[in-house]
């Protein structure tokens, strides 16, 4: 069909009634996308996405290391209070309804979805990225992202597993994300408490984003889908964890809420990276869900974290960082736009990555990463099968500044399974599966405090130096730490090592390292123990008395 009305501004003119691609047909049929007016850019290359971001998106630039940097606008962290799950008869009785998963009616879903599509139809160009979630072909889901911003397209191109060219032909998605984040939700629609809406529909297998351009919503949305689909449909356990593998094939998984060190600690020159954030534990081993990493960049340096620093190059997407206007060098100390500065890069940008990102071995070490702002928890403790259940269910840690909207300083929280914002089912469902797997595969478990220790954050303490946390991990992996002498850490019922290679002995026990004297220590330790006990009340009916007894106990003498 010949084009008409060609001008120098619109050299391709108007082509009416042309044939459409499979993707165009699908978007037109399923979502009413106006395929004759909107240019649907399918599977764009990295340079093409750079060009579009630079031309059309204010705040974009190429940094001196070659990364694309983008600005996400007012929202620079997740918006948990605006997350909704659409009620449907099949998933209704499975979902853990409450503060994390708030219901949205199918009617409101349709209104929001229509609003997102109407917005996408006003654009001159929209992007389609197809990719897989899950490296294990038995369980992977096919994801399509339809979005208005080139930066979002490049982000998901990095974060999903990139299909081979032949796999992109006739790609029929299982789940589709419509990201219209530059356009607000209507605040007067029933159930909307702000102009942001992040909604997942398990029945329709779709996700709709309005009113937030923070790219992390997309990857964490798919994560919630897997927190639902994997246990419910396949009896596979979904984990908010990173994972790596030693030279002998031994696997370590690191659980932890955002900012606790999953990405940093799993990038280890002596071990191959399996993934930095989202995994599943199957009957044969573990697999990564993603094709990329999403690292926190605040304070990043080539000396402390060379692998991550060097991964920030052509093809990577930096988010909300500040750069020098002349040199385009990024200042990773600058938190003017947010504390939650980020970079998303394809996983193969980390030198010693394991491709495919999965292992046929079951984890031999489970690390529960907590970032304790109170300074009470020891840098490392060895857990029994009961203490690991207790701490996994409790999920005591801090929310780090910036990751969620409104959190401006480390804030103590109990985040069940160290990933409460992403859980679809009740935490006990995951906890039971984990306990069974630990028992079956005899995994060792450790609690590592990457946060403050020996003094609280509020009273001016410091986070445990990264080099010591790395030394602790080295000693776990070499087997040395399992063989040293242990002592009981009072109140908390934890076994702490008396020594650890390359770590000063005095920091291993926060009680003896405490800077403000024993009375102050006791007061704060008791306060924290009480918080644990209070939080655990809601889970105690679902666990054995041994698990309850594994938690903090306050001696009557105190
Ligand atoms: N002892 C420590 N262990 C791990 N990370 C630390 C430590 N001290 C400070 N950090 C910093 O904390 C942040 C951890 O972020 P990241 O690894 O991206 O967390 P996650 O992947 O769990 O969201 C990084 O900025 C890292 O430099
Ligand atoms: C991206 C997030 O976390 P993480 O650092 O665990 O990837 C998040 O919590 O939004």
TrEMBL record:
<dbReference type="GO" id="GO:0006094">
    <property type="term" value="P:gluconeogenesis"/>
</dbReference>
<keyword id="KW-0312">Gluconeogenesis</keyword>
<keyword id="KW-0418">Kinase</keyword>
<dbReference type="InterPro" id="IPR001272">
    <property type="entry name" value="PEP_carboxykinase_ATP"/>
</dbReference>
<keyword id="KW-0808">Transferase</keyword>
<keyword id="KW-0210">Decarboxylase</keyword>
<dbReference type="InterPro" id="IPR008210">
    <property type="entry name" value="PEP_carboxykinase_N"/>
</dbReference>
<keyword id="KW-0670">Pyruvate</keyword>
<comment type="similarity">
    <text>Belongs to the phosphoenolpyruvate carboxykinase (ATP) family.</text>
</comment>
<dbReference type="GO" id="GO:0016301">
    <property type="term" value="F:kinase activity"/>
</dbReference>
<dbReference type="InterPro" id="IPR013035">
    <property type="entry name" value="PEP_carboxykinase_C"/>
</dbReference>
<dbReference type="InterPro" id="IPR015994">
    <property type="entry name" value="PEPCK_ATP_CS"/>
</dbReference>
<protein>
    <recommendedName>
        <fullName>Phosphoenolpyruvate carboxykinase (ATP)</fullName>
        <ecNumber>4.1.1.49</ecNumber>
    </recommendedName>
</protein>
<dbReference type="GO" id="GO:0004612">
    <property type="term" value="F:phosphoenolpyruvate carboxykinase (ATP) activity"/>
</dbReference>
<dbReference type="GO" id="GO:0005829">
    <property type="term" value="C:cytosol"/>
</dbReference>
<dbReference type="GO" id="GO:0005524">
    <property type="term" value="F:ATP binding"/>
</dbReference>
<dbReference type="Pfam" id="PF01293">
    <property type="entry name" value="PEPCK_ATP"/>
</dbReference>
<keyword id="KW-0067">ATP-binding</keyword>
<keyword id="KW-0547">Nucleotide-binding</keyword>
<keyword id="KW-0456">Lyase</keyword>
<comment type="pathway">
    <text>Carbohydrate biosynthesis; gluconeogenesis.</text>
</comment>
